[in-house]
Amino acid sequence: MDIFLTLVYVFLFPGFLFLLAYALILEFLDRKIEARMQHRVGPPFLQPFADLIKMLGKEVIDPDGVDDKIFDTAPLVALAAVMTAYLYVPLIGNSPLAFQGDLVLVLYLLTLPTIVLFLMGWMSRNIFSAVGGIRVVTQMFIYEVPFFLALLTPALMAGTWSISEIAAWQQKHLWFMFLQPIGFVVALIGLQAKLERTPFDIPEAETEIIAGPWTELTGRRLAIMHLAIDISLVAGSALVAALFLGGPMTPWVIVPAWLSWIVGFFLFLAKTLAVLLILSSIKVATGRIRIDQLNDIGWKYIASAVLVQVAIVLVMNYFRVSA
Amino acid sequence: MTEVIIPIGPHHPALKEPVNFKVIADGEKIVRLELDISYNHRGIEKAAEQRDFIRVLPLLERVCGICSHSHSTAFAKGIEEIMQVEIPPRAQYIRTIIAELERMHSHLLWLGVAAHEIGFNTLFMWTWRDREAVQDTLEEMSGNRVHYGMNEVGGVRRDLTPSQVNAALARLPNLEERIKKYADMVNNQETMLIRFRGVGKLSKQEALKYGAVGPTARASGVDYDIRSDDPYIAYAEAPWKVVTDTHGDVYGRTCVRIGELGESLKIVRYCLEHLPEGPIRVTTPKAAPKGEIFSRYEAPRGELAHFIRTNGTDKVERLDIRTPTLANWTSVAICLVNQNLADIPVIVAAIDPCLSCTSRITVVNDYDRTEGVITLDELRIRNRARNRRQERC
Question: If you ran DSSP here, which 8-state letter would residue B285 be given?
Answer without folding.
Answer: -
